[in-house]
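Weekly modeling sync, notes
Attendees: S.R. (lead), two postdocs, one rotation student

Agenda item 3: backlog of single-chain predictions. S.R. asked that every request posted to the team notebook include the full sequence so nobody has to chase files. The rotation student volunteered to paste the first one in as an example of the format we agreed on. Action items at the bottom.

Example entry:
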Amino acid sequence: MKWSFVYLLFLTSLLYSQQREKIDSTAYYVSLNYPLVDNNNYKEALSNTQKKIVKAERSNNIKEQASENYNLGKLYYDLKKYNDAIGTLLKSASLYSSLKPNTKQVATLYTIAMCYIEKEDFSNAEIFLNKAKVIQDFLKIPDTAELFSLQKGILYKSENKLDEALTIFKTIIAKPDNSSNLNSKIEALYQTGYIENQNNRSNLALNYLYKALELGDNSDNLEQRSNILLALSTVYEKILDKSTAYSYLKQHLNLKERITIRNNKRLGIDDYTKFKQSQRLKEIIQNNNEIKEQEKTSKFSKLISILAIALISILSLLSLSLYKNNIIRNQSNLLLQEKNNELEIAKNKAEKASKARSEFLSTVSHELRTPLNAINGIAHLLLEEKPKKNQLDYLHSLKFSGDYLTKFINEILEINKIESDKSEVEQTNFNLKQLLFDIKNSLKELAVANNNDLVLKIDEGIPDYLIGDPTKLSQIILNLINNALKFTKNGTIQLITNLEMLEDKIATLYFEINDTGIGIPEDKLSSVFDSFSQGSIEVNRKYGGTGLGLTIVKKLIKILGGKIKLTSIVGKGSTFSFKLAFEISQSPVEVKVLPKIDYDFKLINKKILVVEDNKINQMITRKMLHNKKIICEIIDNGEDAIDWARNNKFDLILMDVHLPGINGTVATEHIRSFDKTTPIIALTAISLHENREMLLSFGMNEVITKPFVPEDFYSTIAEYI
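Predicted structure, as returned to the notebook:
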């Protein structure tokens, strides 16, 4: 992917030519940097750019901070330090997001995409390339359309969509030659020749590659020319012309050697390490008080002098023994290095396996949500249409199976979030006693179903208001009580909460859930917390369930700073207990009483735009809305959704997040640029990498998760209409 450097340089030069029309400090710094880079003085360029960043931060100049962070990120990119480049460029993009759209913002997003392409992370590359394209189209920057088209073709090629890629490349090739599209045409010719060779059309491949080589005589992109020579060698080798293949391979290797020599002159490894160390040191120095620093330096110098004298004396006495020990130490270091390498390899394998498992479970759970939404939606619609009595059992079974699968998928996603450190702990003011009463009331019917008594015992000494995460606490207690109710019949389940300790406005509470159920064998006490485990196959078959509830409970309690304990006797029951600490709150919790919404009255004749690409989900959503006498328009992509929202008035927009072309979040950002008021509700089969706050940040008002519960679906729409 070495070709991307030249295209990046082209885009950069374009925006700089526009900026130099105004002489300001940013333009001055830009003009200062690039002559240094032209002379391969990257060490000087890095140093100067870092100084300008510090100056911009001291003057709180956001525009210059964004610009200089881009300059630093581009230097990292030129030096092939892609991780450092991405970190710095993301900071620049964040700063630019608070300013008006401009050409350098396009260059920043484009450069991030190029970094991801170099790292072969094509998914992220496409995201940032699309963002850059959106702003580029908005600003109407000339002479860049082919550049973005070329990158789109490369992404199609990485996805093995060779026909789509060839269409783009051949469109670029067909355009007349000029200085602005030279590099684009060379790359398009090279990529076309590469694909034709893959398709075993050797003569066509040679034709395109020779044209690329001929045009490349007018370009200074050595890496691009090296790739073309290697491709020619590969084609000739395939057609068994070994002599010509060897000739082009030799030219390729000679050119690669020239590139290596050039790159080595830019910046040595030690220079880059010293720069990064210097960068960290400057950040520390800036945060310290100058007077205290001088005093500290003075004391440190005296201490160094004393230590130096002591060390010289000691070294004089131990020099001979150190010489002998040095040989032994070198041998030990070699052995230690070998062991460290083995441990590092084992660690990397374990991390990759864990990541692969997490990504697999997240993908499976995410992809199942869309068909599940169709299953649950169809079951709901059929039940509403007064089915025959002999059909009711089938439909209720279908609905039960859909609900069961939904619960199973939600639990898988919850475990993945916890294991991927994406589950954040809230610090919210809440009433613990009211929370426990509400949990008891919500489980009354389930307790009666198995003829169980559900008893709640709360220590009166517990403060009324605490600060913590009521959502995770509710999830823990609900799972434990549900588990107890499932394995207990004609018995008693107790939820006991006691004040264990009160100190420095911190209340430590003891929670216990005990039952008189079937109990757990001693040899199964530790395994019940494992994923997909319920103690035995017989228990799973008899009582059902996913085997994930206790796994989630254990992980959530650990996140909140506690540890779960379990005691059990077969035939007599089980006891789960844990302790958690909460900060005591002095302010009462605001109780919001939501009025009951009359859906039939509030939704009649409302006009809703539905943006959904799945045909079955389109049908189900349309039918559910029509059942409430809602007028709806169906659109299957983000581009058309923007046009419809701009040219029509809707009471609400239902926006699917994952759409072909522009996705739902980008489409929402566009709509918000001209419509700040129309409610937009996200529809998503939410994955490990998505969360409600992230989606709301794009301008959405609320999130409905697929598969959705019909009552929640209607109530959310009614609330925002």
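Discussion: group reviewed the output briefly. The chain has 27 helices and twelve strands.
Action items: rotation student to repeat for the remaining queue; S.R. to check formatting next week.
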